[in-house]
Specification:
heterodimer; A: mainly alpha; MetI-like fold; 13 helices; B: alpha/beta; Rossmann fold; 2 domains; six-stranded mixed beta sheet; about 25% strand; disordered C terminus; binds adenosine-5'-triphosphate; binds magnesium ion
């Protein structure tokens, strides 16, 4: 087990290094000299030159990459003498737009995105599994068809369209919810909940649909397993047969898909946050892309890659815990 | 319960019919089947694949696939089962009638330890048992089916057992509630020959200990002749011949039975090994097919 972990973790480090290299390379190719961009309107050649030296853009590419890596792990200092600024340990550079450290920008906005992600995940798991189970247990009935039609629309309607429709119906027409604002949980828990409710639903809908279909298919499969017949032959009550013998095995593969989806949620958050004006990492990314704020885009890319890679390791461990057959046999 | 005090038969099946709707019309897979089994007695049902043996046993248990319809009467110790709700039947299943299935690997849930699965069977029918008590019952049941080191093995998962050991687990699961009737649906078909003989011997032993009746389903005439007093031969859903095991072998009346006898290997009593006469070879593991409910 320890050897397995060490092997996995060194793999993770290697992949993250490759992601760094790749990201770095892509941004270099896209824009080899950002100094011009930073310099702005009142630019002089001397100013550009100064920015170049300050940011280390005059160094060879490989050296730049290593300063970047160094900044990530140990922090780095830009410029020399009086104008020198120190960027502390996980240093992702400074935003071209606001000159703030990218790391701080991300950390400021992460709670909003995390709230959105966790809430949506809870919602989509509950709704997806419940919908899929309903479909499987009432296979072929109108319940089943109804649930699957909803799921199909969840998959085919783009989530910004759904967001606009939902906003129109719930806020404008029915006036059940206020216009989204910025409320923290501490200020007003009820308002906070109302504020996040639509974003949660929108982000969760498409995922819930996929999970409902997966759960339905898996439960229909496990229901026809011989061990379900054994469970019934033992005289177990119906709810136990379903929960322990049909649902439990059906959910194991779903847990692994869930890990992947959750880790890769930043993409979904991007649209949802933008539509609802939530000031999270997703919206910041969208803004940075439209303004070509490279260090921010790069920082977010690395963060997303980090989540996906770490998420994968967590899934592997989870899978080992969930399925006795893949556990190391020498127990 | 008759007034004279005569105990009713353990199992009575009358005019049992099982029908599946198909695009080509309704198909009767069991037709007007009837038999009785006295308390502690044993009956073998033989017949080729698809003759309706499994459907008969599932009909008795009330476990037919949802699309199947059934008519006729099934009585357990005088009590009508056919009209019972699923909830009432649940109390009978596993408690009064226990079942052992063909493929012990797929019949055990890979996600739970064998101990957990035996405990489940016990706790489903006993109120207010603690986990610890149920666990002790599970260990005892495993000891009764001669699983060595039961106290440790109880925490193992099905995939950590061999085929024969898994079938022992299934039998332990069936007997932990002390049922009156044991239905074994091809309990040895998925096992290799030497293990087959051991499992059959175990079933006999369990019957002697518990006094349970046995309904043994197989397509192997040699097996029923060893294991049961009476034999019912099925073909295309109907009973073609019913006789004592002895008479069936010495004097088969129905041509189909004769054909079956000719085609099937005989059991070599002492060694418990199978000897090919001609026709199907004695390799049950390789030839095992489960045609039902999939
Ligand atoms: N779901 C179903 N729909 C339609 N027909 C079915 C269905 N399940 C089983 N049957 C049919 O019922 C008949 C009896 O099946 P059954 O499983 O009882 O046979 P069996 O005697 O147990 O055979 P085997 O020795 O292969 O186990 C078969 O002809 C089979 O094709
Ligand atoms: Mg069968």
């Amino acid at each position: 087990m320890a050897r397995f972990l060490i092997a996995r973790l060194s793999g993770v480090v290697l992949i993250l290094l490759l992601v760094c290299l790749f990201t770095f390379g892509v941004f270099f190719v896209l824009s080899p000299d950002p100094a011009v961009q930073i310099c702005g309107k009142n630019c002089t050649p001397e100013l550009i030159e100064r920015i170049r030296t300050n940011l280390g853009l005059d160094e060879p590419l490989l050296a730049q990459f290593f300063s970047f890596l160094g900044g990530l792990f140990a922090g780095r200092t830009y410029g020399v003498g009086e104008s020198a600024t120190h960027c502390a340990a996980p240093c992702l550079g400074y935003s071209f737009q606001s000159s703030q450290p990218v790391w701080d920008m991300i950390m400021d906005r992460l709670p909003v995105t995390a709230t959105l992600a966790v809430g949506a995940a809870v919602l989509w798991l509950l709704a997806g599994v419940a919908g899929g189970l309903l479909g499987a247990l009432r296979e072929g009935t109108w319940w089943d068809r109804g649930a699957m039609v909803v799921a199909l629309s969840g998959i085919s309607v783009p989530n910004y369209v759904f967001a606009l429709v939902l906003q129109y119906v719930l806020v404008v027409e029915l006036e059940w919810l206020p216009f989204p604002g910025t409320v923290t949980f501490a200020e007003d828990p009820g308002g906070w909940f109302q504020n996040y409710l639509m974003p949660w639903i929108v982000l969760a809908f498409a995922y819930a649909s996929v999970y409902a279909r997966l759960t339905r298919a898996n439960v229909i499969d496990t229901l026809s397993e011989n061990y379900v017949r054994t469970a019934r032959a033992k005289g177990l009550p119906r709810h136990q047969v379903i929960r322990r013998h049909a649902l439990r095995p059906a959910l194991t593969p779903i847990a692994t898909v869930f890990g992947m989806d959750f880790a890769g949620l930043l993409g979904g958050a991007l649209i949802t946050e933008t539509v609802f004006g939530l000031n999270g990492v997703g919206k910041m990314t969208a803004d940075s892309i439209s303004r070509n704020d490279q260090p921010v885009i790069m920082g977010v890319t690395l963060l997303a890659a980090f989540f996906v890679v770490v998420g994968n390791v967590v899934i592997d461990l989870l899978y080992t815990a969930l399925d006795p057959r893949v556990r190391v046999n020498s127990a | 319960m008759t007034a004279i005090g005569k105990t009713p038969p353990l199992l009575e099946v009358e005019e049992l019919n099982v029908t599946f709707p198909t695009p080509q019309g309704a198909v009767d897979v069991v037709r007007d089947l009837g038999f009785t089994l006295e308390p502690g007695g044993s009956l073998g049902i033989v017949g080729e694949s698809g003759s309706g043996k499994s459907m008969t046993s599932l009909a008795i248990m009330g476990l037919l696939p949802p699309r199947a319809t059934m008519s006729g009467r099934v009585r357990l110790a005088g009590r009508e089962l056919s009209g019972l709700t699923d909830r009432q039947l649940r109390r009978v299943r596993g408690d009064r009638i226990a079942m052992v299935f063909q493929d012990p690997l797929s019949s055990l849930n890979p996600y739970y330890t064998v101990g957990t699965q035996i405990e489940e069977a016990y706790r489903a029918h006993r109120q207010r048992v603690t986990r610890r008590q149920a666990r002790r019952v599970a260990v005892e049941a495993m000891e009764r089916v001669h699983i060595a080191d039961a106290a440790r093995r109880v925490d193992h998962y099905p995939h950590q057992f061999s085929g024969g050991m898994r079938q022992r687990v299934m039998i332990a699961m069936a007997l932990c509630t002390e049922p009156d009737l044991l239905i074994a649906d091809e309990p040895t078909t998925a096992l290799d020959v030497t293990v087959q003989a051991q499992i059959l011997r175990l079933l006999t032993e369990v019957r002697q200990e518990t006094g349970a009746g046995l309904l043994l389903i197989t397509h192997d005439l040699a097996v029923v002749s060893e294991m049961t007093e009476e034999v019912l031969v099925m073909r295309a859903g109907a009973c073609v011949e019913r006789a004592s095991a002895e008479r069936l072998f010495s004097d088969p009346r129905h041509p189909y039975t004769r054909a079956l006898l000719d085609a099937v290997p005989r059991l070599d009593d002492e060694v418990g090994e199978l000897r090919t006469v001609h026709g199907r070879g004695p390799s049950p593991a390789a030839g095992a097919t489960e045609g039902d409910e999939r």
